[in-house]
Amino acid sequence: MNYNWDWSVFFKSTGIGSEIYLDWFVTGLGWTIAIALAAWIIALSLGALLGVMRTMPSRWVSGIATVYVEIFRNVPLLVQLFLWHFLVPDLLPEPLEIWFKQDLNPATSAYLSVVVCLGLFTAARVCEQVRTGIQALPKGQLGAARAMGFRLPQIYRYVLLPQAFRIIIPPLTSEFLNIFKNSSVASLIGLMELLAQTKQTAEFSANLFEAFTLATLIYFTLNMSLMLLMRLVEKKVAVPGLISVGGK
Amino acid sequence: MMDFSAIIPALPGLADGLLMTFQLMVLGVLGGVALGTVLALMRLSHNPLLSKAAGIYVNYFRSIPLLLVITWFYFAVPFLLRAITGEDTPVGAFTSCLVAFMMFEAAYFCEIVRAGIQAIPKGQMGAAQALGMTYGQSMRLIILPQAFRKMTPLLLQQSIILFQDTSLVYTVGLMDFLNAARSRGDIIGQPHEFLIFAGLVYFSVSFIASQLVKLLQKRLAV
């Protein structure tokens, strides 16, 4: 293949200030992590709430959560992102709209949009995991809690949720990894996260194979380390006697 | 206020976009399932080299974003073709994206197919071989037909996800449904209306399809 591999490109100057290309990747990775963590907080808290709602006896309460899940699961992520970034600000009350469009710098407004979008998108998926986790618990748990005289909020807080969350760590891990991967859509509304920085490096330096290889390696390493970390957590918090984790 | 009347004259153009979206999905699913089946057979094979290779493939594609894969292929496929054939081979964005989808989805389909094959009782393979069938024959005639029947709902569910994922070709400027709606909305000056319309169409198609899959799942379960 007549391609001149040049791995030193990452240490070359970008021509902008005193930055080298590697700096771009570091900034990009920083944004990617910042998006993923903030969105995960939204996804986990809202998803837990929705998941509880879906297991409630009230038809209304569970119906609302079902509608939420269906809407957010059946519209492509990118369409949702465009809706949040281009449509929703126009629907806000005027002072907020002006603040979002004029006072914030473009990176901040793009960041807010993508965090809200990814958070709400992933919440629908977390909701389904939480629901499955609660429903997977033995029926006797609910009955026993009732017999102890617990009220419904107490049953969820002290009996169902602590067990359910420990069971669903593996699927929650893959949702967490998905947030990292999905955060790359932010590049399409102009936020310079990892993928956007990679594309920029490829265009500026013309060393596109090196740039894309490095990006691939970063995503890969990130995923593998998070997966290993979560496997440790999973072992640590496994419910004794309920399930066997990682070969007991 | 919103005015959706401009969408009606734009419908033919939007339909073209939707057609491209469906083409990407159908071809992506066919290619993905074919490659995914090969990978699944490799993963289940007793040859450690084959199963390792397939394992690496699946892990690799499952840990990077689809958007990165699309961009990678968009840049790399024409370049690689030039390196292989020695001359400029024009390969459109459509082909690059399609290859990216097939290879990416193959990793996900592989896991579905593998689970499907593993769900078939071991005795089936034994019985096939007792009848004198070779490994290839028993896979092709006995195991795979049953496995595919079992995993049809999952394969369809993954295809619905792929339908939504095709919108990511926006990144290379391919005129799929989302891009058609975005660009028409911008030209006419009503981006919001077109974006909402696009969202509604994606929602209706995926929602109806997933309800049908649920029905099918019930029927197949009997």
Structural overview:
- The complex is a heterodimer of chains A (248) and B (222).
- The radius of gyration of chain A is 22 Å and the shape is globular.
- With 248 residues, chain A is an all-alpha fold.
- Chain A has a domain at 30-193: Orthogonal Bundle (MetI-like fold).
- Chain A has helices at 21-55, 59-74, 77-91, 94-103, 106-136, 139-147, 152-167, 169-182, 194-205, 208-237.
- Chain A is built from ten helices and no strands.
- Chain A starts with 20 loop residues before the first helix and ends in an 11-residue tail after the last helix.
- Chain B has 222 residues and is mainly alpha-helical.
- Chain B has eight helices and no strands.
- Chain B has helices spanning 7-44, 48-62, 66-85, 93-118, 122-130, 135-165, 177-188, 191-221.
- In chain B, α1 runs antiparallel to α6 (135-165).
- Chains A and B meet through α2, α3, α8, α9 and α10 of A and α3 and α8 of B.
Shape of chain B: flat
Most extensive contact: A-B, 40 and 34 residues
Q: In the CATH hierarchy, what is the superfamily of the domain at 30-193 in chain A? A: MetI-like
What's the overall average pLDDT of chain A, rounded? 91
Mean pLDDT of chain B: 92
* Biggest sheet layout of chain A: none
Look at the helices and sheets of chain A and give the structural class.
mainly alpha
pLDDT below 50 for ≥5 consecutive residues: which ranges of chain B?
Answer: none
Strand and helix order of chain A: HHHHHHHHHH
Number of strands of chain A: 0
Q: What Rg of chain A, in angstroms, do the CA atoms define?
A: 22 Å
Q: Please estimate the helix content of chain A.
A: over 70%
Low-pLDDT windows of residues of chain A: 244-248
From the spread of the alpha carbons, the general shape of chain A counts as: globular
Structural class of chain B: mainly alpha
Give descriptors for this structure.
heterodimer; A: 248 residues; mainly alpha; MetI-like fold; 10 helices; globular; disordered C terminus; B: 222 residues
